[in-house]
Amino acid sequence: MPLIPGQLLNNRYRIVKLLGLRLLRLVAIIAVSILLVGCHPVDRTATQITLTETGVVTPMPTSTVTPIATTTPTGTPTPSLTPAPFFTATPALGIGSTQISAHDGMVMVYIPAGDFQMGASDSDTNANSDEKPHHKVFLNSFWMYQTEVTNAQYALCVKDNVCEAPQYVRSITRSHYYDDPQFNNYPVIWASWNDASNYCQWAEGRLPTEAEWEKAGRGGLEGKLYPWGDEAPVCDQQVKNGANYASCSMEDTTPTGYFQPNDYGLYDMAGNVWEWVSDWYGASYYKTFLSDSSPTDPIGPHSGYYRVLRGGSWHAGAQDLRVSLRPWNDPLILSYYYYVIGFRCAR
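The structure corresponding to this sequence follows.
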């Protein structure tokens, strides 16, 4: 049917109105979008907005950027200053150097290496033939017990089931000596050579050789009669030549270290008790050195029947305290004289 002019006009009006409404809606949507963008910062993950034909706002999915994990930097440690190594010089060993034995607590005295004159000099009118000739000997350094081994120290070895207890507990004037605590610091007696050797091995030492004992006993003095020089011994505790020997009133042992030491710092190298050394006794042993001008670390004869004793005792006369004297005794069979025999160790 053909449209009349009035209807045609109305249709155009409706079309214009409809277009106008859609245009207004579009302007409103654009205005809202602009407002939203202005109020919120745009980020890379924001949803994009578009229009459908029906004018409904629908979100457009966009690719989401996955953040890459990064390590949060931590504070860089300040490098500490490493101190330069501090070197201390090891003290040189010499006369006066000491150390402590870990087994028995004994002070050990350092004896330096070097030559010394061993035996009796021609001027010694009391010398026996086995003390001659006077000859030079070289010894390497070694350590010497500062005193004779005491009752208390020997008891430690007995407690460890290494040493045998002395056969007798008495001394010459005391019915109880070894087993009486008041005599702990007195020299052990009634010890055989084997007892002495076993003890020194237990203490990680050994008996000194005859040459070592004499060098230590001389205290660095050459050609002298006694550990302190040529003066005869006296019973005075306060003087250098004091010793416990036959002329003194004690008539028995005294505490170790009771009298003055020699120049090496060793006590009782003359008097108190005789001391076992490691050597077998050889009456003509020194004469074997005539073909060797300076033997090194001699150890005595390879075999024998008796072992050498050194140093004198409380029962000995003054001439028996001479540092070159070489008496001897049976190393195994206990005899009456064992009550004046003790020992010290070396290392």
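The first strand starts at residue 48 and ends at 51.
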